[in-house]
Write a structure and sequence with these properties.
The chain has about 160 residues and is mainly beta. About 10% of the residues lie in helices and about 40% in strands. Strands 1, 2, 3, 4, 5, 6, 7, 8 and 9 form a nine-stranded antiparallel sheet that branches.
């Protein structure tokens, strides 16, 4: 699978976040807490949802499933002027990304194993210390083998 190299524009997000690690994955809890609150958010850009990870520096080079990171469940908005109580905002800066159009079950870790252990090491890029995210659009389904999502990996030239 070959990604497109794109430059994203700045994105304004409203959502909920938790600290977690892969060995104690709290993604279901995160989305369970955030999902019912999406209807409270005004000025949504689309119906797509954003799953976003903020990893510590060198997280992928020193990978350990017990290392913690911050994970967000969010939506993109055109204004941060009205944030519902208990939710937070995040300004996602513009930058270069490897954009993978993934089709398959979201629970299958093979795509991420491929990206981090094969594509990145064999590419002309390194992982940049910016948020990683997935755009979960109209064709996304957690359980469907035909589910579709965009995987955005922040990159810079080697």
């Amino acid at each position: 699978m070959t990604p497109r190299i794109v430059t994203s524009t700045e994105k304004k997000l409203i959502g909920h976040h938790l600290q977690m690690c892969l060995s104690d994955n709290k993604t279901a809890q995160l989305w369970g807490e955030f999902g019912p609150r999406i209807k409270e958010i005004q000025n949504k850009v689309s119906d797509a949802k954003i799953s976003l990870q903020i990893y510590p520096h060198l997280y992928h080079q020193n990978f350990n499933p017990n290392n913690t990171f911050e994970k967000w469940a969010a939506v993109e908005v055109d204004s941060l002027e009205s944030i519902p109580n208990g939710l937070d905002s995040l300004l996602l800066e513009s930058g270069a990304y490897a954009l993978f159009n993934y089709k398959g079950p979201s629970a299958d870790p093979a795509i991420f194993q491929y990206i981090y252990s094969e594509w990145i090491p064999n590419s002309n890029y390194v992982i940049e210390s910016r948020p990683h995210f997935e755009v979960l659009g109209l064709h996304y389904s957690k359980t469907d083998i035909n589910s579709e999502e965009e995987i955005w990996i922040p990159i810079s030239n080697k």
